[in-house]
Amino acid sequence: MTLAPEAGTTTGRELKIVRGACPHDCPDTCAMLYYVDDDKLVDVKGDPNHPMTKGGLCVKLKNFPEHHYQSDRLMHPMRRVGPKGAGEFERITWDEALTEIKQRWTDIIVDHGSQAIMPHAYLGHQGVINGLTSGDAFFNRLGSSVAEKTYCESGSSTAWHMTVGGTGGLDIESMAYSKYIIVWGMNMTSTNLHGWPFLLKARKDNGAKIVVIDPVRTRTARQADWHIPIRPGTDGALAMGLIHEIIAQGLTDADYVEKYTVGFDELAERAANYPPERVEEITGIPADDVRTLAREYATAQPAAIRQGVAIERSRGGGQAIRAITSLPALVGAWRHVGGGTMEMPIWEFPTLFDKICMPEWIPEGTRVINELDLGMALTGEMKLDPPLKSLFVYNSNPVSQGPAQAKIMAGLLREDLFTVVSDHFVTDTAKFADLVLPATMQAEQLDIMVTWGHLYISLNQPAIEPPGECVPNSELFRRLARTMGFTDDYWDRTDEQMLRDFHDWDAPALRGITFDSLKETGYARLDVGLPHERAPHAEGNFPTPSGKCEFRSSLAEGGNFVVPVWRSMYDKMQPGGYVDPLPDYVPPFESPASNPELAKKYPLNIVSPKPHAFLNSQYANAADKQDVQGGQRVWIHPDDAAERNIAAGDTVRVFNDRGAFAGPAVIDDIMMKGLVMANVGHWQNKASGSTVNTITLDRHNQLGNAGVYSDNLVEVAKVVDPVLTPEPVASS
Ligand code: SF4
Are 313 and 677 in contact (CB under 8 A)? Predict the structure, then answer.
């Protein structure tokens, strides 16, 4: 495909244009056009015809070509030459790297067994053959410990499946037809930018009211018609209070409830514990606002709820999502186009994760280690038998994104741990590696993108050759498989063959779509109903065991579980343990109300949302993105700052028993009193030496083993001599 030069760039020559898709852990999965001049990527634009992207990319993708050519990019395999953590490496060949991996892993397997090896991956890339599950078949064949990848969305996925099953739910595009929209726990204009215009259209065309529920008056909240600040980790109390009020005010859709739900009477009895005055006490939201929200939501149909992942990030987040996901059935919102709730629609995509992950290769009795427990697993706190002797990190940066940062770093310093990291740059995690391997970027590889924010399947085609010796993850695991002597034909396939094999092209959702047609169009909407007519649960039809929306969940009987896609499709060794079949408010581990003793020492709750200019920790090493994002700043309410004699711009230290980090104070009444905020994603060498996750608790949400990033108490103090880097407090 080519266009005339005036179509895009300034070279004066005709450019090759290749269709691509954004690789990032973002719901928008923008369709992109790569502009290539003589095998050099010279420009990247959003596809103007894509119904979501509409020609625009976000700030993260600004200068995307330059990102591919950044001077500190990893180009070759490297071996550590300095002390662990120093980030000192020398160039080696791929053969040398693979030989060393084989030697070290063979020795480990002989001495300790294959479960002493653990992969660590997340959504550093979102593709089918380069993303979350791209290494699962290899590690399952190796017999390593199975990594449970629950950084994000796992708690939501479990709660969603327990309540409405594996449905795509409400389409973001259908929200243009809504008359009332609640954005709950999501800063859409930073993290779902291309979804936001559908809400604005609903406001313009239908007079829809946009309500944002968020502890912080974010840039999204400032554009809403009504911002409702809520204490972190108390969303479940608000949702239960709304259920109570809707029932108390007689606003349920009795016919819908009767025909298409299970457990209404028990839910009503449970919700009766949450009258508005109690909800006010827990959440900080005035009781009258709770009543008003319940009435408006129930009566202004079609009503939509866009759920953000922030809700799951505290101890009771899973049950909060259960309660929120129950609301549309209670008021019959699912009956209407534009009614219902959206969490993430990946369940509509006919991706064959079993064929990707090959769970049948997992040896009987293989253990599961949750990635959020990495610090405990590496330091011996978990008392693993056998202990972990090797860690293979790809698509992830646990030192930045994992909880209990100091503990993870302590584990990575172990001399007897053989750590391999595949990445684009020497990240905060790669610094600790024994070997680093160079990975391709998106313009250099083929993939179909897993999409969790809309209903388009997208093909990314390679536009340029990989630089240096960079390889895509598909090729990385092919090389590792050959190195370890695996002769399975799984790894004999090309990338294209794998992509063809990893989708059910006969599925109704892919009607009229083929791999070859995607090569032409780049993307295609799944055949799951058009935005102006899609109402998937107008007549129930929920993919739950009962076929109904389960207020009382039948899946609770099996105990706590992680949806298999987050654990190599392994359905054994699930966490188990009692699960309340009814939604409820579960207090946080750490808040002044739930843990008053701890709050005497650490009185402030902290939240660490995703940054505007970085994608988690990606791009945080790029100067242009740092200019937009600013440093590791600490937002604090004016009253809390005054009590601590903190002035704007003062360097402050944020600390608890787990660690400490520092940054300049931003005094701003967008914050609730008692709350501080620092964005996740900054790199240590660009910050004070520690970053926000140094204070994060390494425990799990009650559902789906999700993290508790918004369930932490801290204290903040002015740093008297800001030249001194604050020492991390010893890990607990
Ligand atoms: S990060 Fe998200 S919004 Fe930005 S270009 Fe990629 S998919 Fe689009």
Answer: no
